[in-house]
Design brief:
It is built from two helices and four strands. It is of the alpha+beta class. The protein has one domain (2-85). Strands 1-2-3-4 form a four-stranded antiparallel beta sheet, with no helix packed on it.
Length: 94
């Protein structure tokens, strides 16, 4: 786990990694000017928990899934890339 702090030394981002340092997920903490936490946003990292299903899906199915998730979740879906963790299919919202 890695914690990044803002200029007020309050946690701003918390990243969770596996034993190979591949990013599993991270949380962004949003604060107001007084430092009170307003929200938290959780993002998926390099590898999805649904990876085996994504790997076996056709490109057409992945495109349909991305469109469905975009309608259902808006811009919540995102992904990041790490050279050590590549080779995995991903679905990315816009």
């Amino acid at each position: 786990m890695t914690v990044n702090y803002d200029e007020e030394q309050l946690p701003a981002k918390i990243s969770f990694h596996d034993a190979n340092q591949c990013l599993l997920s991270y949380v962004i903490l949003v604060r107001d000017s007084a430092g009170r936490q307003l929200s938290e946003e959780m993002y998926q990292g390099d590898k999805s928990p649904f990876q085996k299903y994504l790997n076996s899906a056709s490109p057409k199915d992945l495109e349909r899934l991305a469109a469905l998730l975009e309608v259902a979740l808006g811009n919540v879906i995102s992904s990041t890339k790490n050279k050590r963790c590549q080779g995995a299919a991903s679905v990315t919202g816009t």
